[in-house]
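User: Yeast cell wall synthesis Kre9/Knh1-like N-terminal domain-containing protein. Structure?
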Amino acid sequence: MNFKSILFALTTLVTLSLAIVLNPQITSPSADTKWRAGDTRTVTWDTENVTGGPIPEGMKGTIKLGYLDPKDGPNEHLNWDLGSGFDLNKGSFVVTLPSELETKRTYIIVLMGDSGNASPQFTITAAR
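Assistant: Predicted structure:
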C-alpha cells in the first residue's frame, strides 16, 4: 500500500466518524406526562441504545422547551432555554419550568447535542 492509499483511507475514516450523529431518545417527558408551570422536573434520555452512540465523554448538551401549533406546520417554537453545558452521557438533567407558561397539550422538550431530538408532545398546565 502506498502513502496516498493510506492517507485516503485515514481521511475516509475520519470523515465517516465525524458524520455520525448521536440521537438519544428522550424517555421523560413522555406523551402521558403532565407538568405544572414553575415546577422543577427531571428530563431523562436513553444513554444505552443511542443511534450513532455511545455518547462520548465530555459531549455537552442543551435542553429547550417549545410547543407545536397545528396551525403553524412543523415550527417547534423553541422559546425557552432550560439548561445547557451539562454532560450528555449522564442521561438526565434537572430543569425549572418558566412560571408564566400557558396551559397547552403540545409542549415538547428538545435535547440538543450534535443533533436535536424532540420528546413526544406532553401537557404543562399554568401555575396556580
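DSSP finds one helix and nine strands in the chain. The two ends are 71 Å apart (CA to CA).
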